[in-house]
Specification:
mainly alpha; about 130 residues; single chain
C-alpha cells in the first residue's frame, strides 16, 4: 500500500511541476504574442515612444500612469498600481476590473499560456 501512495504522490508531483513550468511563460513566445495582440497600440524596446497606448519598455516595477510621453486617463494616473507580473496578468485579462475607468479595451489574449508568455516578454524588456 505504501508503494501505491508513493506512486500517486510522484504522479501528482509531476503534474504540479508541469503546471508550474507551463505558467512561467516563455519570453520569446511572448514576443510573438506582443506583435500579434499589442503592437497595434503599444511600442516596446529601447527608444520606444507612446503610440495609441503608452510605451511598455520597463513596465514591470513601474508606477501606473507615469510615463511622460502619454496622456493617461485620470483613473490610470490615480490607480496607485505598481505593475508586477501578477498585476499585469490581471490587468490584461480584465483591464476595467483592475483599473475601473481605464481607457484600455482588450478582448482575450487566447490562453493562460499566451498571457504568461506575454508577461514574461514584457518583464524582459527593461530598456537596458
Amino acid at each position: 500500500m505504501l508503494v501505491i501512495t508513493q506512486r500517486r504522490f510522484a504522479a501528482l508531483l509531476l503534474v504540479a511541476l508541469a503546471r508550474s513550468a507551463f505558467a512561467e511563460g516563455d519570453a520569446e513566445a511572448g514576443r510573438t504574442v506582443f506583435q500579434a495582440k499589442c503592437s497595434g497600440c503599444h511600442n516596446i524596446g529601447p527608444g520606444a515612444q507612446a503610440a495609441f497606448g503608452p510605451q511598455l519598455t520597463g513596465v514591470v516595477g513601474r508606477q501606473a500612469g507615469t510615463t511622460a510621453d502619454y496622456q493617461y486617463s485620470d483613473a490610470m494616473r490615480n490607480a496607485g498600481v505598481v505593475w508586477s507580473e501578477d498585476k499585469l496578468k490581471a490587468y490584461i485579462d480584465d483591464p476595467k476590473g483592475v483599473v475601473p475607468g481605464t481607457r484600455m479595451n482588450f478582448w482575450w489574449i487566447g490562453s493562460d499560456q499566451k498571457l504568461s508568455d506575454l508577461v514574461a516578454f514584457l518583464a524582459s524588456q527593461t530598456g537596458q
